[in-house]
Design goal:
Radius of gyration: 24 Å
Number of helices: 12
Bound molecules: MU-OXO-diiron
Oligomer: single chain
Largest sheet: 7 strands, mixed
Helix content: 25-40%
Shape: elongated
């Protein structure tokens, strides 16, 4: 149990999950994850903000009970309907049968579909700008669709300048005793924020930018997301990370992703890395797409400016793990990269570069450099790589 008062009468009642290995069934969780929920206690009413994944409901309910509120919870605000946050709604409704579930029209539609709660009197439907007065604490709602689902909204408490931000500013990593960033070493959460954003929210850069501009004039002292620490001291840092990632602004550095069966494409990938290093580029991340976690490759490809992708020809297609990677890039509409492509063939000369160019064309991502070789590297390969890097930089 890790229940804390964040600021006057606003409590963290979220839970850690150190059991789940793959978030969304896809993304590794080496440090676990949190599902964050909060209680706001006003002078006349009490609100619960979001719930937790159903697997953690027992601890969640214990957390709420530990506050010894001695009053009913009047409102359950559902900022986001993905089941990692909405999973315990039905249990909360069982505990507090008179609670009003607060959401927008789309939220209600999803609750009916996911949890079969069909009694309209259970809901309080809000729209942009609506407020609920809890007595000395106001809940003010703003819709931020597609950050990360169509129903997503945020809830602001002006008296405390505190924002319940949903998935925005979330990150992987269970909490280790502290809740607010100043109580802990945040480096791992900041690092994991790149992976969280690129893996989970990466496709939705435009809606995230829209949400950021909507929130930019609101004074914020606390950001309370659905995953990871509450941000206070590092609000500027996390705002900058999310702004840069959602605007597809890259950091200096290079990522080389390759797929290779017998080491020939791998050898050229290493030569490209060596040449880039010789030109002073850092960091350089080289990933074998067959063995490196796709989650980390996507994260660094999102983060760094130079991206070189290479593949062996495989049954007249890209090598399958490279195809998976390029599908992930296309899904996330990745852009603004210094993009280079390279590949090898034995008898099917144009396949690899043609396939990679098709991706680039659909993604509107200009190919700055291309290198294709037959069989294996040879005496001319270093010179070819130098030319490739010249064009890439
Ligand atoms: Fe953590 Fe989009 O749910």
């Amino acid at each position: 149990m890790n229940v804390k008062e964040i600021t006057d009468n606003i409590y963290y009642v979220g839970v850690n999950d150190r059991t789940l290995t793959l978030f969304e069934g896809l993304w590794p969780l080496p440090y676990g994850v949190t599902y964050n929920s909060y209680v706001v206690k006003g002078e006349k009413s009490v609100a619960l903000i979001d719930t937790v994944n159903i697997d953690e409901v027992r601890e969640f309910i214990n957390n709420i009970r530990s506050l010894k509120l001695n009053v009913n919870i009047d409102y359950l605000v559902v900022n986001h309907m993905e089941p990692d946050h909405s999973g315990s709604i039905a249990e909360i409704l069982r505990m507090y049968p008179d609670i009003k579930i607060v959401g927008n029209v789309k939220t209600v539609e999803m609750i009916k579909g996911f949890y079969h709660i069909t009694d309209d009197s259970a809901f309080k439907v809000i729209k942009e700008g609506d407020k609920i007065d809890l007595g000395g604490k106001t809940l003010q709602f703003s819709l931020i669709p597609m950050v990360h689902w169509p129903e997503t909204m945020v809830t602001y408490v002006p008296e405390d300048k505190l924002l319940f931000s949903g998935d925005a500013f979330g990150t992987f990593g269970a909490l280790n005793g502290g809740v607010v960033d100043y109580e802990m070493d945040t480096d791992v959460y900041i690092e994991e924020m790149y992976r969280y954003y690129s893996n989970i929210v990466g496709k939705y850069g435009v809606p995230v930018q829209r949400a950021l501009s909507k929130l930019k004039d609101i004074p914020v002292s606390y950001i309370c997301p659905t995953h990871g620490p509450v941000w206070k001291e590092r609000i500027g840092d996390v705002m900058k990370i999310v702004d840069n990632l959602s605007a597809y602004r890259s950091e200096e550095g290079a990522v080389i992703v390759y797929g290779s069966m017998y080491g020939n494409t791998a050898e050229v990938a290493e030569t490209i890395a060596s040449e880039l290093s010789g030109r002073g580029i850092k960091p350089i991340k080289v990933y074998n797409a067959s063995t490196a976690p796709m989650s980390n490759i996507i994260s660094d490809a999102f983060r760094y400016k130079i991206l070189a992708v290479g593949s062996a020809t495989y049954s007249m297609r890209l090598f399958p793990p490279v195809e998976t990677f390029m599908n992930a890039m296309e899904t996330r509409e990745i852009k603004n990269k210094d993009f280079g492509i390279f590949g090898s063939y034995t008898w099917a000369k144009d396949i690899v570069l043609t396939r990679l160019e098709e991706y680039a064309k659909r993604m509107k991502l200009p190919v700055k450099a291309a290198l294709c070789f037959q069989h294996s590297s040879n005496d001319g390969t270093s010179a070819e790589v130098k030319k490739f890097v010249d064009k890439l930089l």
